């Protein structure tokens, strides 16, 4: 456990023992004693020399190898090509490689470096890349298709933001732009109407919060909404828990309550339009109110605001109730010109709430006037602006010590299994220290100098020799926990690639997107009030397109560690529980898929191994598999292989 610095106020003798009154340091005092590493400037560290100069493929490898050599350790051998292409395919597309892709790579006569680069480049260009990596990001920004809590109203346009993330990643939108559009897409310049509409959709991230629509105190509701926005922006982009300063100065970070409300003023001056209204501000009716949506502009110079009215159709929970709460499923209608998001509101600083009490207020600090040491100051906010544009500019400037570090650490975590900073959402004093701080800075600099390209950074990491190491262990190795990266970590497949792979193996997977909102229900309590998804696990769509309804997540999701959709979760938990094994043993979804694979294999045991595990069976495996096939049939063999660790893990 990491201990915090403290002051000794008094010392006295108590019998034979010395006792001390220990008083914790304030965050400011801790900062004065030693600047936390994450607040320090990003430095260009010299690339270290290594003894085994022939081993590295990239400067990444030199940083890794130098640290290993310091402890007289050495990396394990490289992974074979069959293992490597399966690893790359799941990491980049969330699906296994095809038989043709495996054979092409294995038979490629080019050197390993050249052959693997061709594989990585092809996978990065696939549209499946955006679907795979968008899910990583949606975990971070607490994506859901309903608000949750007391009144679980559907987000009728959340799917637009989800698709925006997918398309942005496929287009390799520069990360600094990706960040800025989610904070201030409505305020950024655009050269075309389509670009302007697209970046407004990006602000949907700020409108996805789980808030209490039944909150009778509207000021409390607003402050809760602002707090959610501060929390997601600070943790997703900077790895800082700034929302902890809502009621008092931060206990561990150099962040005062005054800093919090200087930041709160930015969102307090913005108008959040999620598609439903808080009841105390509704003027009587309507949960999908035209005043609570964004009307996407059709001209570059058109003002951005809510639509005048909704077109004919079913748009709100009130519309469904007006039909007498019919038992049949009623779909919500959507309009291509609408989205959820955030626009400029009534410009005003946010008064400091004493102890978080919305009705006990002190003088409001100036919007954006942060007193956080070491971080660069925010640009001056014009009197008639919320400050979201300036916040986006501040967060994406090249001198900001956190944004690029947090981003490359998230990339490293998804590819390597653990981040250089293992607490990927917490770069603060209570978070983990980096295992390779110089490498983290090296990657952050390369990321920015490479135009903030996520695909370029992913490619760089994957072509390193460190990524291409085998995952086999060595009981004699001193670094058993692999802290220093002498081998690859085995990574268990998450829910999405597991389910998508089962669909692909059975030949049922469609790569189409479902159209519009896939959620129904009135969100409230009572017999007809349930909000529910309209696509179940048996549907042929990729899992990222299945609706995520807060407080009503499918059991399969929770079985395989899908994060709670109100959480900011950059790294998922990995549990091992009985229902996971039972799913592969008894679930109809698995049994049906196993039958389809067996039929596709046409009685060929070797074909089953190629399809399920992407490799040939050994002689002993082949003999045992043939015996099992004769005894219980080929489908049972398929199901047995689906339940193995080799299928469920990427090595």
What features would you describe in this structure?
It is a single chain. The chain is mainly alpha-helical and 651 residues long. It contains 24 helices and 12 strands. Strands 1-2 form a two-stranded antiparallel sheet. A two-stranded antiparallel ribbon has the order 3-6. Strands 4-5 form a two-stranded antiparallel ribbon. Helix 8 (175-184) packs across helix 9 (193-202) and helix 14 (403-416) packs across helix 15. The radius of gyration is 27 Å and the shape is globular.
Any chance you could write out the topology, listing elements then pairs?
Layout: E1 6-14, E2 17-24, H1 27-33, H2 59-70, H3 81-93, H4 99-107, H5 112-125, H6 128-140, H7 158-170, H8 175-184, H9 193-202, H10 218-238, H11 257-268, E3 270-273, E4 294-295, H12 317-322, E5 338-339, E6 341-344, E7 352-353, E8 361-362, H13 388-395, H14 403-416, H15 437-449, H16 454-462, E9 491-492, H17 495-505, E10 519-520, E11 532-533, H18 555-559, H19 578-586, H20 588-601, H21 605-613, H22 619-632, H23 634-642, H24 645-648, E12 649-650
Helix pairs in contact: 3-4, 3-5, 3-6, 6-7, 8-9, 8-13, 10-11, 14-15, 14-16, 20-23, 21-23, 22-23
């Amino acid at each position: 456990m990491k201990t915090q610095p403290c002051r000794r106020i008094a010392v006295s003798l108590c019998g034979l023992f010395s006792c001390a009154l220990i008083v914790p340091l304030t965050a400011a005092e801790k900062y004065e004693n030693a600047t936390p590493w994450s607040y320090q400037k990003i430095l260009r560290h010299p690339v270290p020399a290594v003894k085994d100069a022939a081993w590295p493929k990239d400067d990444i490898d030199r940083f890794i190898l130098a640290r290993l050599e310091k402890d007289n350790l050495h990396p394990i051998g490289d992974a074979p090509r069959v293992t490597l292409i399966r690893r790359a395919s799941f990491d980049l597309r969330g699906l296994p490689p095809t038989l043709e892709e495996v054979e092409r790579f294995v038979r490629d006569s080019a050197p390993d470096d050249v052959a693997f680069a061709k594989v990585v480049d092809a996978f990065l260009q696939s549209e499946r890349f955006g679907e795979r990596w968008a899910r990583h990001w949606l975990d971070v920004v607490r994506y859901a298709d309903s608000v949750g809590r007391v009144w679980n109203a559907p987000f009728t346009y959340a799917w637009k933001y989800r698709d925006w993330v997918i398309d942005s990643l496929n287009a390799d939108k520069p990360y600094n732009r990706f960040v800025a559009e989610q904070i201030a897409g409505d305020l950024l310049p655009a050269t075309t109407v389509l670009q302007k509409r697209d970046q407004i959709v990006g602000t949907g991230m700020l409108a996805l919060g789980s808030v209490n629509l039944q909150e009778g105190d509207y000021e409390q509701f607003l402050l809760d909404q602002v707090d959610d926005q501060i929390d997601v922006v600070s943790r997703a982009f900077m790895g800082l828990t700034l929302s902890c300063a809502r009621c008092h100065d931060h206990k561990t970070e150099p962040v005062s309550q005054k800093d919090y409300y200087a930041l709160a003023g930015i969102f307090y001056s913005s108008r959040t339009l999620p598609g439903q209204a808080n009841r105390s501000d509704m003027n009587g009716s309507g949960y999908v109110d035209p005043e609570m949506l964004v009307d996407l502009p059709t001209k570059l110079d058109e003002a951005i605001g809510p639509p005048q009215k909704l077109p004919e159709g079913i748009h709100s929970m009130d519309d469904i109730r007006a039909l007498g709460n019919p038992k049949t499923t009623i779909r919500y209608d959507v309009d291509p010109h609408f989205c959820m998001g955030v626009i400029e509101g009534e410009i005003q600083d946010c008064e400091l709430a004493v102890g978080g009490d919305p009705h006990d207020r002190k003088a409001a600090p100036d919007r954006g006037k942060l007193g956080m040491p070491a971080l660069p100051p925010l640009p001056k906010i014009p009197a008639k602006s919320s400050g979201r544009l300036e916040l986006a500019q501040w967060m994406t400037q090249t001198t900001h010590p956190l944004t690029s570090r947090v981003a490359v650490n998230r990339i490293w975590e998804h590819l390597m299994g653990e981040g250089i900073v293992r607490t990927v959402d917490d770069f603060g004093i209570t978070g983990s220290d980096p295992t390779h701080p110089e490498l983290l800075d090296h990657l952050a600099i390369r990321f920015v100098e490479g135009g903030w390209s996520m695909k370029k950074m992913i490619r760089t990491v994957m072509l390193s020799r460190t990524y291409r190491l085998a995952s086999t262990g060595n009981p004699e190795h001193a670094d058993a926990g692999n802290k220093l990266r002498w081998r690859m970590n085995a990574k268990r497949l998450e829910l999405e690639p597991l389910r998508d792979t089962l669909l692909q193996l059975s030949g049922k997977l469609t790569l189409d997107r479902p159209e519009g909102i896939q959620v129904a229900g009135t969100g409230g309590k009572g017999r007809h009030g349930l909000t529910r998804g309209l696509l179940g696990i048996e549907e042929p769509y990729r899992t990222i397109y299945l609706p995520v309804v807060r407080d009503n997540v499918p059991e399969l999701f929770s079985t395989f560690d899908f994060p709670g959709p109100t959480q900011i979760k950059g790294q998922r938990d990995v549990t091992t529980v009985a229902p996971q094994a039972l799913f592969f043993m008894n679930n109809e979804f698995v049994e049906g898929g196993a039958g389809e694979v067996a039929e596709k294999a046409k009685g060929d045991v070797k074909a089953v191994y190629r399809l399920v595990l992407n490799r040939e069976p050994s002689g002993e495996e082949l003999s045992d598999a043939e015996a099992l096939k004769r005894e219980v049939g080929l489908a049972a063999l398929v199901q047995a292989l689906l339940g193995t660790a080799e299928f469920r893990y990427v090595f």
